[in-house]
Fold this protein.
Amino acid sequence: MSPLPLTVHADAEALAGAVAAALAEAILRGVATQGEAWLALAGGSTPFAAYRRLAAMDLPWSRVHLVASDERWVPAGHERRNERALAEAFAAASGVRLHPLAPADADPAAFAPEHAAILATAEASLAPLHPRAFDAVLLGMGTDAHFASLFPKVTPPAALDAGDRRPVVALVPDPLPPEAPYPRVSLTLSRLVATHALLLMISGEAKRAALEWARTRPASEAPIHALLAAAPDLAIHWSP
């Protein structure tokens, strides 16, 4: 098996700088070619230093659209909502437009993955983009090899099928992550890989080991395997 195509950075600061620069390049390319730029961005703790660096750059923010790669099914303003975290990280980016994946009144107790209405907000937010590709997608990965909110064992196979055209999926992680024990709405693999620039940002030896492990496991057990298989041009950025 060939080595993973990792770009190794000396530390977290260098990692954040490189990812911010790559996203800025994607924004400028999208605005130049399409008149606007669309980015799908990961939540979690790792990427926010990069987001703050990016937000401080002099870029055409009024032409930039941001959407989370996945969202916790909690109300707008909730401390665990990715939309809120992105809004705070991009506070300096005057004019940037942030599109929700969950309604403002999302109630975890009323979540029902089988109900089509659960996906209505996400589908409406993504509708202006269809069928265009994202200009950039930045993903993270958990030590259980999930990405976005596509978790092992509970993600429907279609959501990990690069040939499936459904853009979003609703699911309940099992077990629920203790730091964010909520149902989720997530972009699917097919929607995430439809992009001009696809980046995976990870840090620490545990996540590098998890990524190596996932290469030999089925996607149902290690969802990131499906991403690696579907996206040969994936740019993986890692720091110890």
Notes: The longest strand covers residues 198-203. The chain has a mean pLDDT of 97.
